[in-house]
Structure formats: structure tokens, C-alpha cells
Design goal:
single chain, alpha/beta, 3 domains, Gyrase A, domain 2, Four Helix Bundle (Hemerythrin (Met), subunit A), six-stranded mixed sheet, Rossmann fold, 426 residues, 17% strand
Amino acid sequence: MTDTIVALSSGAPPSGLAVIRLSGPRTAELLRDVSGILPEPRKLTLRPIGAHSLLDRGLVAWFPGPHSFTGEDCAELQVHGSPAGVRAILKLLTSKGARLAEAGEFTRRAFENGKLDLVEIEGLGDLLEAETENQRRQALARFEGGLTQRIDAWRDQLLDLRAEIEARLDFSDEGDVDEALPTEFGTSIAALRRDIETALASIEHGRIIREGIRVAVAGPPNAGKSSLINALAKSDIAIVTDEAGTTRDVREVPLDIGGQLYILLDLAGLRDTDSKAEAEGVRRARLAIDQADIVLWLTAPDIADNNLPAEGAIRVGTKADIGVTANVDVTVSTQIGQGMDELLALIAKAGANLTTGEPSLLSRERDRLALSASVEALTHAQQQLGSPELAAESLRIASQSLERLVGRLDAERVLDRLFASFCIGK
């Protein structure tokens, strides 16, 4: 990393403010060239920005490495968010030797310099994309190192266990140490395995917060599914007609209820049909119902419904303005707004049942795979206590699984995929 990179770190102009970020060995030189000084570290200083001519006036900040985001010499220029002004400043900096950064390159340098590990970078990515309060809290906890601290504690326990085995193997020939492992050793492995298993059990909670609670809006054709989606989203997202069978694809609509993300699934009406296209829509609808976290089952007073509601579904009677539907949990009318608050309360209650307990720091499939592999290796170690060499190897595998999770092993493929979703200035 001998080159110095530059990028717009804030949102695309025009905007009230634009933040231009620099990182690399020539940062101090470039900052002097365009602002006339190298300011006191970590203090904002108002300066003219330009070389032979004034381009803008703004605040400049100097962050000498290693005490910076990337671990390298860094600087920020806070200028007016003019498209022309930002382009001119970037052109000036690149003409003096800086290179435009690639997506996620600042964060990659932070990883390579040991400022962030892989799970913290994933937390940063989730934080940048957080749309709800629950997502923000969960992402921030991961970014701040909450999961890393737990993983480091597990690794330390594994290192202690491995060290004890190695000591017994090394010194057993001299008669100073008995090679056989004591009962307490197996107890320690079992306790560590239970701790990791407890963390694994929370991963579904974390996934739901990160990806959202999937709510299937189901029922027969013309039961008012699309109308209800539009009313809940307060937008004409779904097509509403009197013609049955117009919804065929599964449409996803995000909705924030009480700080939790819900994904409403607008599904095809369930009925027998000779249309191949509609039949495919019905098949997809049934699959979505099976995979949903919550199901809203809609019926209406003017629609015959021979389908049995999904087990545990919230039964919603629609079109309350034209009649009453029996045997439902809530009655609504999108025309007059009746029952909408009651329905939202039922959805929120069902969602709360899925997200009870402490927030989870685990939310990704990569988390599940790594911790599951570690648990499996610990199980093998428990079964191999009579063969210390084999138990030591199983403990090494358990430790490697945790190393991969934080990115100390085999991180490159994960990083490439992760940084592809980052903005240029991160």
C-alpha cells in the first residue's frame, strides 16, 4: 500500500456538505499542497482549498497514522457539497499523485492494518444500510467489537486447553506430567461448547433483525391483499384491480413497525387455475407462506374461501365497509381506514414474540457455519480425551473456525464480496 487514495466519503452532491477523504503515505504532502498547512492532529482548521487558484474554503483535519481509521496517515476535507467543486478538488488531488479509491478500499486498509477485523467490517456494512432502530443497534454492537470480544474469549479458552494438552504430551516421557487428561479438562470443554451453542441459538433472532420479519399476505383472489399492502405501506406499490389472478410474482414491501423491519409479501391469490402463469404464482405463494415468519390470512364478505388458513396465521377480515366476516382476529377496511391500527398491533405482537431476549450479535450464515464447525470440533475433542493427540487436533480445528470468522484465516474471498457493496469513500 504505497499509493495514496482519495474519494468523496459523504453522499453524492449536491448537498450542504461534502467530505473528501485521503489515506496513504503522501497524505501530509497533499494536504499541505491544497490547504497551505499541515494542521494540528485531530483538530478542524478552516482553510482555503486550492493550489494556483481558490477552489473552495472548508475545514481540514489531519489524522497521522497509526491513530486513524485506516491505520495510515489520513486527512479529511469538509467543503461545500457542490458537484463542480468536489470534482475540481478531486481532480487537483489526483493531479498531484493521489489515486481514486476503489469501493471499500479505505475499510480494506483498516482491516489489513489491524484496525478492524472481519466481523467488525460486516457490522460497519450493516450500520451503513440500517433502516430501523433495531438494525442500527445490532449493527453498531457488532461494529464496536461486541462479537469480536466473545470470539477472543472463546479463543483464549481454547488456547489454554491446547497448552495443557501440549504440556502433558511434551513432558509425559520425562515422567513429570501424567499424559492422561483429568476429568476437569472434559468439563471445561463441555462448558465452552455449551457457551458457543447458546450463542448459536440466538442467530435466528439476529437474522430477523438484520433481514426483517417476513410477513406473507395470503388468501384467495380479490380478498384485498394488494389493497392492504398499499394501505400499510401508505403508497400505491401493488396493482389493485377487480380482475382475479393479477398478482403472480412475490412482491416484497419493507415496513418499519416500532423500530423493527417487516417485509410484507404480496402473494398471488390461492385457487385452482388452468393458467400456467397463474399456477406458477400460486406455487410461489404457497412456498412463501411456508417460509414466512408471520402469515396474514385475508378473507372478505364477498369472496368464497375454501382454503384452510395457515397454522398460527393472523386471520384478517377485509372490506369491512361492505360487510362483516366471521371467525377473524381483526376486521379492516382500507377504504375507510377501519382496523388498521389494530392490525399493526397484532403484527407487532407476533413480531415481538420472534425477537424476545437479548439482541444477538450473530446474524449471518457465515457466523452459523463457523460456530457450528467449532462446536462439532469440540464435540470430537470430548470424545477423544483418551487420545490426547487427537483431542489437541480437534481443539486446533475449533480454534481455526473462530479465526476464520474474524478474518485471521481465509479472509480474501469474504472481503471481496463484502467490499463490493461498500461505497467508494468507505
